[in-house]
Design goal:
There is one protein chain. By secondary structure, this protein is an all-alpha fold. The chain folds into 2 domains: 1-43; 55-105. The chain is built from 2 helices and no strands. The protein has helices at residues 2-41, 56-103. It is rod-shaped.
């Protein structure tokens, strides 16, 4: 009878060990499921970036560039006006010379 009792006792121990192993495996599976659910539930990362506002230094640089450009356009306009005046004087002088040559002076 003691032999049968020992076999039963050993079978009970193995069942307890097997049950603990199964419980650990089930706990690991549940943990993996929870981790996957948490990753899916996490909000997606923001893909658009908010444009940073310009600093005061950048605005000053833009203002200086606009001023320099305006002064350059003003000088170009003055240069074209002078060129037009000079061209008109040259044309008038050449026309007068042409008339003098036609008259025989």
């Amino acid at each position: 009878m003691s032999d049968a009792l020992e076999k039963a006792e050993q079978a009970a121990r193995e069942a307890a060990v097997d049950t603990a192993a199964v419980q650990i495996a089930l706990a690991a599976v549940e943990l993996a499921k929870a981790a996957a659910a948490q990753q899916q539930a996490a909000p997606p990362a923001c893909e658009h970036h908010r444009k940073q506002r310009r600093s005061a230094g950048e605005w000053i640089g833009i203002a200086c560039a606009v001023c320099v450009g305006g002064v350059g356009i003003a000088f170009a306009s003055v240069a074209l006006a002078i060129l037009g005046g000079v061209a008109a004087i040259v044309v008038l002088v050449l026309r007068d010379m042409w008339r003098d040559m036609r008259k025989g002076r």
